[in-house]
């Protein structure tokens, strides 16, 4: 799906959609960093409306002991979008459905870990707690990420609010 079509489906301009995607990717990164995941080599990119967070979404890159932090990171993207939409009075059933559809690869990666219901609930709770605690980081970094298209770990960690 092109960036223009995706933006239109949400009722956003292209710039608003790029901000929305940046918030999603930062949600993964902030949740993962808060769980101690090493993002030193990660660059967050927005490429033509497709977002990529390198180093966070594939179970083969994680050991068993890191299963819960990975679940937290995977759920961070959707939760960040939910928080953003609700805080800005933009949350509605249509956008919720679109956001869930866009997070399907995250949900698929989480399902591959075969978590119990309790592990999933704990991961969602932790991700929400981390994002609420560090929302100022996302608020500050998202416009910069949306504008420039990428942000290194060093740049992200230098954002006030950690």
**Strand content bin:** 5-15%
* Shape annotation: globular
Largest sheet report: 3 strands, antiparallel
Which blocks of ≥5 consecutive residues have pLDDT under 50? 53-61
CATH architecture: Up-down Bundle
Taking the alpha carbons of the first and last residues, their distance comes to 34 Å
* Domain module tally: 1
Structural class: mainly alpha
Query: What would the CATH topology be?
Result: Methane Monooxygenase Hydroxylase, Chain G, domain 1
Number of helices: 8
Helix content: 55-70%
Helix and strand sequence:
HHEEHHHHHEH
Q: How many β strands by DSSP?
A: 3
Q: What is the CATH class name?
A: Mainly Alpha
With strands numbered from the N-terminus, the spatial order across the biggest sheet is 2-1-3
The Cα radius of gyration reads 15 Å
Average pLDDT for all residues: 83
Notes on the structure:
The chain has 162 residues and is mainly alpha-helical. The protein has one domain: Methane Monooxygenase Hydroxylase, Chain G, domain 1 (Up-down Bundle), CATH 1.20.58. 65% of the residues lie in helices and 7% in strands. It has 8 helices and 3 strands, in the order H-H-E-E-H-H-H-H-H-E-H. The protein has helices at 3-10, 14-34, 67-87, 93-102, 104-112, 117-133, 135-148, 153-157; strands at 43-47, 50-53, 150-152. Strands 2-1-3 form a 3-stranded antiparallel β-sheet. A hairpin with a 2-residue loop joins strand 1 and strand 2. Helix 2 (14-34) packs across helix 7 (135-148).
